[in-house]
């Protein structure tokens, strides 16, 4: 065994010895979600309580010999019920913990080994009380592979990552494998890019490896701009070292000596933890010159985005690192041939890279045990919408929507969050570039290729579940508004096309459309899809096209009957005065800016639908709630 | 003296970034952290120092939504309108804030420059939607009432600081 | 790969070095529409008009797809035609709707394409948010309402001219092409070369028109309107009337100008001959003395502004000669008044130029005396063409007429000024005889001719070795200057023309897109030279006479007064100073330069010391202190400005001294 491995083992063993010495470990979730819910205060309360308790426990990790230690972890996915606290070794899992609860937990659980019942998770359906994480269906039904360490280790402690076996694969990649072997191994594992396209990582690496150039780059794409996706954030905050290790392996595979992690600007915590992780990795000798005694070096930089979704697109991202406007450029040349500063560059998604050490660890065959033949492994999703449980989840490829919605997510809810039985209408998968899936697709095994066949895509992994009350035209409009806003403006079809599509959708929603509008929308969407320069434009029409395909009736109702089946499109609602409730106070008539309301004082009023502008001012004005949609 | 201190800080920022045009975005980020916006003459200065055209610096500064060429309020409220928050009614929150701050059409800052409101896509707090950030602090599971309270708290705190300052 | 075949619409086309499918398709004589592709610019891929279908690949942009053997390409499938229409409709739905009144009408590519694709109706709502047009520049009008954001102008300004005066700003549907901070074009570093307007496919950037003012002068009976026609005009204007590029039409131009109502028609080539004498003598003097070598030519105003802005340290290397246009203006105003017996202010000098920068040059304060400008109006070739159209003249059928004397007589040397390399060659024709004291029959110096943007020639004249550089395109000029500065190269004479290929490719010339056009115009000028009787400026009898009767010696006192000028450094963008401390109303301004070079030379300490001094002396109320960004006197930094005085190589002591001198040393 070489020096470096020995060193790593020592760091790991030291850590294990220290943490074993502690009677208890208290893990307080410090993901963005739980932080918002006040988990930092909970953490501080624990630190203080332990110190005050006279338990002779020391909180700082380094002096952990005697007692108990409290750590912050990354997001555990179930932010909705946070702040989350886990007590080890028992694995007791408390939810919704407030600083005031801390004293009780210390007293009961730490001192006496009892459980604070009221802080345990209760399964809404069966009312079953869950003592540990593993008992909760939300977790039980997932397959946490990349997320396994998120929420159990302290992301700000490199020692703990090393203790969990971390960085061994990086060392192995440098000392025991050739670049070619690494590429082959990754290729054999079938690992596909998690950033949206699903391109085989091994193939991408091999192209860059074959390029002869003294300078090459590895870039980790942590831009994650999809509104409603935060998987990459979860990984960067919860397990930053796994990303760094993946990058070290990638660098070795293509013989690059410099790397960048491009992080979305709205993720300050991820930036902070990555910075710390990188500093620590340099300190331990995992980054820098003459890695592991070889003559290779690898330097890693962080670049913070400045607020542009399109910078997730790889050529735009490169432009951004070069200090330019983040406008994509035509491919070819592909970045693996000519990327950052014209040098061969591989760009991979955060999740892709954090899978890499795991792939090396379990080997191609081991990796292929999970998932489908052409999409091996697992995928994280950001689950939101009208479901009981939302959050960050990880499922094997091939899982079905039914498993996700009714298993992990705990079923459908109404608009107000109440559980409903038969509420499912559709799922929007893949964010603004994805498409919608309907009841017909509930049992479709989800993977890269199956989704493409039905006009959707894995995309970034956003998964929005929608109930029967959702207007699909409005959903399409929401995403169109997003892409329109985020278009970089370079190419005509996307810049002007998304603007016109949005305006056509507005026509539909506001009752100005005819059947020709639908045809024009479809033609335009087709042209934008086929002709745009980059993926943003190419996929922008997907939500429109897929809702038009699966919910054509709904579009037609808006267009020819001027009616929104869910009553969500305000402009199409006919406002009427309930004669029973109306007291004839004349307030509404006075406030109506269009002069559409008439009536005598003391008598029920009347709204003329032709003049009504649907501003809803009257609805708000009426003290007797007499004005409503027909 | 404050002006010159800030200005000297700009030199420092440019030097720390090796006077390299490739570091334009980090430089602008740091300048904005110092001034809270990007003053035109500083951008012109940055361009000259990096040896690139002012038009291209202006182009970069206006491309990214986090850069601002106008001074913003002391408290920057960014309401998340990501998918999850949108579904949970974020635009209603936004409306409530606009109303509360009595902003007119097209305005995003209060006249006393205490507040600026904007929307943002996904803060990564979807589990707690609807969410917003005020400067660096994230708030989740908001209602129009809660938002109104948060604003009141800030106003109160500011008024307090103000009177403290005067008292001293 | 060369020689391999690609099938384009079922026709076999061999690959011969083409880098992309578009070039190959055009070689197959299929006119694929494009807005954003130009062989001289980087590939941008934004207009999406070049989409073609490739078997096995689907729709791809031809401009950024490399050809591969056996590719099967279709350029006109139903899908492609539908997409093109949608693209043009989308553009029109975000476009100003005053096509008929647009400068570019009939030469606009958007208009042409709409017609070609048979678009009779735009199915989308017009969503243009009208923005004001920028007419501040003397040379260019920028109308953002007509911009299709193809980026051609942005790339030519930065990639070819290395100026970068305009760039994209904002994002998505808000994107505009605009000078820095949305300033007016005349407030920024634009050198007025007009290359952006030349390449712009629409009416978003156009040369500024002075046609109305010229008509007005013509209609004014009290004015004598005098025209001077630049060399490059004669080989290009015919294109507007269906003649092939390069056809020389000097006679028709003279006829047209007379018909339009110009009183006198002269030739700028005459003053080009004059320039040759003055500039050559300056050159001989300077080379002999080893003084300020290399000498740079100065007849291109865009180049001159470029040096003033970016390389003030080279200003004294510029030849002090005025450009032929301005020599003409000065002479005309000085001599014609008495000759034609009219008041000086009633002579209106109108230049016909291939150039937009000449409009700027004519307005420079250096070129007026007693408030009367030497050159009153500058028309581009295009504008003259439009006047000819308006006057209803059948240009092609006009019988040639001659220019008026004496300023209508020229030699071939004055004519080739319109080509890149022309000035150098003309100078060589003079210098070679002057230095050897012998007459030569051969007059062509083909070694300085060519199409490359940077050409070098070594010549030996009278036993002396000369190295010349002939440069066109300001980006190339920048390269050459950097190389000179770093000592990598040495030249004696450097000719610079801002426009690639020289004035024949100027922005005032008729709109063209085929690079072949430039080649033919160049050829046209060299042919004109050959057709003329005389080829050397020193042989021009009227020039000799001019010196004898009016100017005196070459380079003499009178010549200096009328034919030479001086230059000063110039800020790139105006109004970007940073207020550090401001006093009361009538205070004195102190600006400290914080340009890169001055900063390195210590302006930061200087500023601190000045502030300290002001503070100690309690002068806060009486001065405004500013940090200014570059007085462009970088070689002599740190530079400060107190009141109106610029102090170079400033120290704390000098600054305090100067402050005192402003009467500010009260206790
Ligand atoms: C508009 C747009 C946005 C994108 N955003 C992201 C992103 O946020 N994160 C990401 O990893 N990939 C994103 N991608 C995909 C990247 O271009 C690229 O394909 C990916 O980073 C490659 O990594 P992978 O092979 O590991 O998936 C985006 C693509 C487009 C067109
Ligand atoms: S498709 Fe949209 S985002 Fe992509 S280059 Fe074109 S305009 Fe920009
Ligand atoms: S005229 Fe020349 S310098 Fe000015 S913007 Fe156009 S290309 Fe640039
Ligand atoms: S101004 Fe003209 S050349 Fe420039 S981007 Fe607009 S249309 Fe293109
Ligand atoms: S090269 Fe000629 S046409 Fe071009 S700017 Fe200079 S003088 Fe004008
Ligand atoms: S959608 Fe608002 S935090 Fe994610
Ligand atoms: S020429 Fe290919 S996209 Fe414009």
How would you describe this protein?
Chain A has 24 helices and 19 strands. Chain A folds into 5 domains: 14-132, Glutaredoxin (3-Layer(aba) Sandwich); 158-367, NADH-ubiquinone oxidoreductase 51kDa subunit (Rossmann fold); 378-470, Ubiquitin-like (UB roll), CATH 3.10.20.600; 473-560, Up-down Bundle (de novo design (two linked rop proteins)); 574-629, 2-Layer Sandwich (Alpha-Beta Plaits). The longest helix of chain A is centred in the N-terminal third of the chain and has 19 residues, at 3-21. By secondary structure, chain A is an alpha/beta fold. Chain B has 168 residues and is α+β, with helices and mostly antiparallel strands. Chain B folds into 2 domains: 2-63, Arc Repressor Mutant, subunit A, CATH 1.10.10; 75-167, 3-Layer(aba) Sandwich (Glutaredoxin), CATH 3.40.30.10. Chain B has a 4-stranded mixed sheet, with helices on one face. In chain B, 47% of the residues are buried. The mean pLDDT of chain B is 88. By secondary structure, chain C is of the alpha/beta class. Chain C has 4 domains: 5-76, Ubiquitin-like (UB roll) (Roll), CATH 3.10.20; 118-207, Alpha-Beta Plaits, CATH 3.30.70.20; 212-563, 3-Layer(aba) Sandwich (Rossmann fold), CATH 3.40.50; 578-661, Glutaredoxin. In chain C, 33% of the residues lie in helices and 16% in strands. Chain C is built from 21 helices and 24 strands. A 5-stranded mixed sheet of chain C has the order 2-1-5-3-4, covered by helices on one side. Chain C has a 5-stranded mixed sheet with strand order 20-22-21-23-24, with helices on one face. Chain C has a 4-stranded parallel sheet with strand order 11-10-13-16, with helices on both faces. The model of chain C has no long low-confidence stretch (mean pLDDT 92). Chains in contact: A-B, A-C, B-C. The interface between B and C is medium-sized, with 28 and 36 residues. Residues 310, 328, 487-491, 494-495, 532-534, 536-537 of chain A line the site of one iron/sulfur cluster (SF4).
């Amino acid at each position: 065994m070489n020096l470096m491995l020995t060193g790593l083992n020592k760091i790991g063993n030291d850590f294990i010895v220290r943490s074993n010495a502690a009677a208890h470990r208290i893990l307080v979730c410090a993901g963005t979600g739980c932080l918002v819910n006040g988990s930092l205060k909970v953490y501080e309360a624990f630190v203080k309580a332990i110190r005050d308790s006279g338990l002779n426990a020391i909180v700082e990790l380094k002096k952990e010999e005697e007692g108990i230690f409290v750590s912050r972890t990354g997001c555990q996915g179930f932010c909705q019920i946070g702040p989350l606290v886990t007590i080890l070794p028992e694995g007791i899992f408390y939810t919704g913990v407030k600083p005031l609860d801390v004293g009780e937990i210390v007293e009961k659980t730490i001192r006496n080994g009892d459980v604070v019942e009221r802080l345990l998770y209760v399964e809404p359906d069966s009312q079953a009380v869950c003592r540990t994480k593993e008992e909760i269906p939300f977790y039980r039904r997932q397959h946490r592979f990349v997320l396994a360490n998120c929420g159990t280790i302290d992301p700000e402690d490199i020692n703990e990552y090393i203790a969990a076996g971390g960085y061994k694969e990086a060392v192995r990649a440098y000392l025991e494998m050739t670049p070619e072997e690494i590429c082959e191994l990754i290729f054999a594992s079938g690992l596909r890019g998690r950033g949206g396209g699903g391109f085989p990582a091994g193939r991408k690496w091999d192209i860059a490896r074959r390029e002869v150039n003294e300078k090459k780059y590895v870039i980790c794409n942590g831009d994650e701009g999809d509104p409603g996706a935060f998987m990459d954030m979860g990984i960067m905050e919860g397990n930053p070292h796994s990303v760094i290790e993946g990058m070290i392996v990638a660098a070795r595979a293509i013989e690059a000596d410099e790397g960048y992690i491009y992080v979305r600007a709205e993720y300050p915590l991820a930036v902070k933890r990555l910075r710390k992780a990188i500093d620590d990795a340099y300190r331990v000798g995992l980054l820098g010159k003459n890695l592991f005694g070889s003559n290779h070096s690898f330097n890693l930089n962080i670049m913070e985005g400045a607020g542009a979704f399109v910078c997730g697109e790889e050529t735009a991202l490169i432009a951004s690192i070069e200090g330019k406007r983040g406008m994509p450029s035509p491919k070819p040349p592909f970045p693996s041939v000519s990327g950052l500063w014209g040098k061969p560059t591989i760009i991979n998604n955060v999740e892709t890279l954090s899978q890499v050490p795991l792939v090396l660890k379990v080997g191609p065959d081991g990796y292929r045990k999970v998932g489908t033949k052409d999409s091996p492994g697992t995928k994280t999703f950001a689950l939101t919408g009208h479901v009981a449980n939302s959050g960050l989840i990880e499922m094997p490829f091939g899982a079905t929507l039914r498993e996700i919605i009714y298993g992990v997510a705990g079923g459908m809810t109404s608009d107000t969050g109440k559980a409903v039985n038969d509420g499912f209408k559709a799922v929007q998968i893949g964010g603004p570039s994805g498409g919608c899936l309907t009841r017909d697709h509930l049992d479709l095994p989800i993977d890269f290729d199956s989704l493409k066949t039905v006009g959707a895509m894995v995309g970034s992994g956003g998964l929005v579940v929608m109930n029967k009350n959702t207007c699909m035209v409005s959903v399409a409009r929401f995403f169109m508004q997003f892409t329109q806003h985020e278009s970089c403006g370079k190419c005509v079809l996307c810049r002007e096309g998304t603007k016109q599509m949005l305006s056509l959708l507005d026509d539909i929603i506001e009752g100005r459309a005819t059947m020709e509008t639908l045809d024009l929308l479809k033609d335009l969407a087709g042209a934008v899809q086929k002709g745009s320069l980059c993926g943003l434009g190419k996929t922008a029409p997907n939500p429109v096209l897929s809702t038009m395909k699966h919910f054509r009736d709904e579009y037609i109702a808006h267009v020819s009957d001027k009616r929104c089946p869910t009553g969500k499109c305000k402009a199409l609602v006919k406002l009427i005065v309930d004669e029973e409730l109306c007291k004839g106070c004349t307030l509404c008539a006075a406030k109506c800016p269009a002069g559409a309301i008439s009536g005598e004082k003391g008598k029920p009023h009347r709204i003329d639908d032709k003049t009504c502008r649907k501003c809803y001012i009257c609805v708000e004005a009426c003290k007797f709630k007499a004005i409503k949609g027909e | 003296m404050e002006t010159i201190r800030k200005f000297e800080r700009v030199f420092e920022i440019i030097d720390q970034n090796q006077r390299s045009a490739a570091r334009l975005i980090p430089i602008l980020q740091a300048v904005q952290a110092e001034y809270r916006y990007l003053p035109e003459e500083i951008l012109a200065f940055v361009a000259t120092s990096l040896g690139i055209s002012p038009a291209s610096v202006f182009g970069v500064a206006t491309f990214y939504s986090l850069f601002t060429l106008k001074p913003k309020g002391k408290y920057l409220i960014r309401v998340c309108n990501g998918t999850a928050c949108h579904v949970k009614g974020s635009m209603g929150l936004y409306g409530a804030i606009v109303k509360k701050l009595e902003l007119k059409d097209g305005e995003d800052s209060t006249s006393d420059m205490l507040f600026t409101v904007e929307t943002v896509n996904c803060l990564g707090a979807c589990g707690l939607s609807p969410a917003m950030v005020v400067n660096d602090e994230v708030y989740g599971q908001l209602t129009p009432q809660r938002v109104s309270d948060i604003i009141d708290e800030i106003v109160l705190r500011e008024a307090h600081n103000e009177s403290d300052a005067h008292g001293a | 790969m060369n020689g391999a075949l690609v099938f384009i619409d079922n026709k076999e086309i061999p690959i011969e070095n083409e880098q992309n499918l578009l070039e190959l398709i055009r070689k197959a004589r299929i006119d694929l529409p494009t807005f954003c592709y130009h062989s001289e610019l980087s590939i941008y891929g934004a207009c999406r008009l070049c989409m073609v279908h490739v078997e096995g690949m689907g729709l791809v942009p031809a401009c950024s797809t490399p050809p591969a053997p056996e590719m099967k390409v279709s350029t006109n499938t139903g899908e492609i035609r539908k997409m093109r229409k949608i693209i043009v409709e989308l553009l029109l739905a975000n476009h100003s709707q005053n096509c008929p009144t647009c400068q570019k009408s009939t030469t606009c590519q958007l208009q042409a394409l709409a017609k070609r694709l048979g678009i009779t109706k735009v199915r989308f709502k017009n969503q243009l948010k009208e923005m004001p047009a920028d007419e501040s520049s003397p040379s260019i009008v920028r109308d953002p309402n007509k911009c299709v954001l193809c980026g051609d102008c942005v790339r030519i300004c930065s990639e070819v001219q290395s100026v970068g005066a305009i760039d994209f700003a904002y994002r998505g549907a808000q994107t505009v092409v605009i000078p820095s901070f949305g300033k007016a074009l005349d407030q920024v570093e634009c050198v007025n070369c007009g290359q952006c307007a030349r390449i712009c496919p629409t009416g978003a950037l156009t040369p500024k028109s002075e046609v109305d003012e010229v008509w007005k002068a013509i209609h004014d009976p009290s004015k004598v309107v005098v025209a001077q026609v630049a060399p490059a005009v004669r080989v290009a204007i015919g294109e507007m009337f269906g003649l092939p590029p390069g056809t020389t039409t000097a006679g028709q131009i003279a006829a047209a100008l007379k018909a339009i109502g110009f009183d006198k028609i002269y030739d700028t080539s005459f003053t080009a001959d004059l320039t040759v004498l003055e500039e050559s003598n300056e050159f001989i003097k300077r080379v002999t003395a080893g003084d300020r070598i290399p000498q740079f030519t100065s007849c291109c105003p865009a180049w001159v502004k470029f040096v003033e802005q970016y390389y003030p340290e080279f200003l004294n290397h510029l030849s002090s000669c005025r450009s032929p246009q301005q020599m003409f203006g000065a002479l005309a105003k000085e001599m014609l008044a008495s000759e034609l017996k009219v008041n000086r202010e009633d002579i209106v000098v109108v230049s016909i130029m291939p150039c937009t920068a000449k409009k700027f040059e004519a307005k420079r304060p250096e070129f007026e005396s007693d408030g009367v400008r030497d050159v009153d109006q500058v028309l581009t070739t295009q504008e003259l063409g439009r006047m000819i159209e308006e006057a209803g003249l059948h240009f092609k059928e006009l019988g040639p007429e001659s220019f008026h004397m004496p300023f209508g007589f020229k030699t071939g040397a004055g004519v080739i000024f319109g080509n890149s390399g022309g000035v150098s060659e003309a100078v060589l024709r003079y210098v070679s005889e002057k230095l050897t004291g012998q007459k030569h029959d051969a007059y062509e110096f083909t070694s300085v001719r060519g199409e490359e943007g940077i050409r070098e020639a070594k010549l030996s004249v009278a036993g002396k070795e000369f190295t010349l550089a002939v440069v066109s395109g300001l980006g190339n000029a920048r390269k050459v200057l950097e190389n000179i500065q770093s000592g990598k190269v040495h030249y004696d004479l450097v000719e610079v023309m801002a426009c690639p290929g020289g004035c024949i490719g100027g922005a005032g010339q008729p709109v063209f897109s085929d690079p072949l056009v430039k080649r033919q115009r160049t050829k046209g000028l060299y042919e004109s030279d050959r057709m003329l009787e005389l080829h050397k400026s020193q042989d021009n009898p009227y020039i000799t006479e001019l010196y004898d009767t009016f100017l005196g010696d070459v380079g003499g006192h009178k010549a200096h007064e009328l034919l030479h000028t001086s230059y000063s450094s110039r800020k790139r963008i105006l109004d970007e100073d940073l207020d550090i401390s401001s006093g009361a109303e009538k205070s004195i301004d102190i600006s400290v330069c914080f340009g890169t070079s001055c900063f390195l030379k210590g302006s930061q300490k200087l500023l601190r010391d000045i502030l300290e001094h002001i503070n100690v002396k309690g002068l806060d109320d009486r001065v405004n202190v500013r940090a200014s960004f570059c007085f462009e006197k970088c070689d002599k930094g740190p530079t400060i400005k107190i009141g109106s005085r610029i102090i170079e190589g400033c120290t704390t002591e000098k600054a305090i001294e100067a402050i005192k001198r402003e009467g500010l040393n009260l206790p």
